[in-house]
Specification:
It is built from 14 helices and nine strands. By secondary structure, it is an alpha/beta fold. Helix 7 (about 165-180) links the parallel strand 5 (about 155-160) and strand 6. The protein is globular and about 50 Å long. The termini are close together. It binds phosphoric acid mono(formamide)ester (CP) and norvaline.
């Protein structure tokens, strides 16, 4: 198994089989245990990786940097504002330059085609650290977190509430389809994932036994759910003008205590983070002043409740990204 992952990029999760995803989760769990036990794991000693971030980040950047250090690697952070990427040099040329110096490249940015082009020309593994369409390293961490919490993935029911057209819902749908889970997107119809993607996932679901559903009524959708999952209503790179319509359209899909109670006694709350759950952020305060609300996609009481496993989920970003890098670089 490990040999079959060497040299491969990690772009959407589509390109990985359920057995390969399970292997990455097992490997991440092992790396997590080693880290907790203080056991060194310099599996990629003296390799070099480049981290390109065209959008901001806390978790993903830190996860890549800490994981790289733990694996004995060196990393270079590339801020496109301070490099030639995109402005003076095409992605194709950047890929060939970086591929000649680095053993692997992480990319966070806009269209999925950009990371695909990078992977096509770099000649080294490229890892998608978030595009408009997909966020696969996040979903790997989410799967590990769900497996840690419930002991298994098969048939677990994850309900995503909010903007189900964007990277998080898309990638969760792919991950759930692959792992034979039950995925429900709950949103106004205009916010459902695109049909082509749904069809692709439905085809996978036929083989894995996954169930994919699309509902508009939150109280109905969350019944017997294992996980209620949400994401910000306005994603990075979207214009400020969309806030008003998003707040209007998505407020009924906020994860509230009432919704958690409607789900199940054991239901957990998950969020990729960052989250607007209180007035502790600049944007949160601006929205409060303009629209009079003090949280957006999730109530603070849910975010801070015992059912919330968001920080375990955030920590798992590092362990799973480490597994992806070590496996694809052939470190173990
Ligand atoms: N969840 C996530 O990708 O967080 P960052 O934007 O902080 O990297
Ligand atoms: N949908 C969000 C995810 C952040 C991790 C965004 O793209 O901004």
């Amino acid at each position: 198994m490990a040999a079959s992952l060497k040299g491969r990029s990690f772009l959407t999760l589509f390109e990985y089989t359920p057995a390969e995803i399970e292997h990455l989760l097992d490997f991440a769990a092992k790396l997590k245990a080693m880290k907790k036990a203080g056991e060194k794991h310099h599996y990629c000693k003296d390799k070099n990786i480049a981290l390109i971030f065209e959008k901001t980040s806390t978790r993903t950047r830190c996860a890549f940097e800490v994981a790289a250090a733990d694996l004995g690697m060196h990393s270079t952070y590339l801020d496109p504002k301070a490099s030639q990427i995109g402005k003076k040099e095409s992605i194709r040329d950047t890929a060939r330059v970086l591929g000649s110096m680095y053993d692997g490249i992480e990319y966070r940015g806009f269209e999925q085609e950009i990371v695909e082009e990078l992977a096509a020309y770099a000649g080294v593994p490229v890892w998608n650290g978030l595009t408009n369409e997909f966020h696969p390293t996040q979903v790997l961490a989410d799967l590990l977190t769900i497996r840690e919490h419930f002991g298994s993935l098969k048939d677990r029911h994850l309900v995503f509430l909010g903007d189900a057209r964007y990277n998080m819902a898309n990638s969760l749908m792919v991950g759930c389809a692959k792992m034979g889970m039950h995925f429900t997107a709950c949103a106004p119809e205009a916010y459902f994932p695109n049909e082509e993607l749904v069809e692709r996932c439905q085809n996978i679901a036929k083989r894995t036994g996954a169930i994919l559903e699309f509902k508009t009524n939150p109280m109905e959708a969350v019944k017997n759910a294992d996980v209620l999952y949400t994401d910000v209503w306005v994603s990075m790179g979207e214009p400020d003008e969309v806030w008003a319509e998003r707040i209007r359209d998505l407020s009924p899909y906020r994860v509230t205590t009432a919704l958690m109670e409607e789900a199940d006694v054991d239901t957990v709350f998950m969020h990729c983070l960052p989250a607007f759950h209180d007035l502790g952020t600049e944007i949160g305060r601006q929205i409060h002043e303009k629209f009079g609300i003090d949280c957006m996609e999730v109530e603070d009481a849910v975010f801070e409740s015992k059912a919330s496993i968001v920080f375990q989920e955030a920590e798992n970003r590092m362990h799973t990204i480490k597994a992806v890098m070590a496996a694809t670089l052939g470190g173990k």
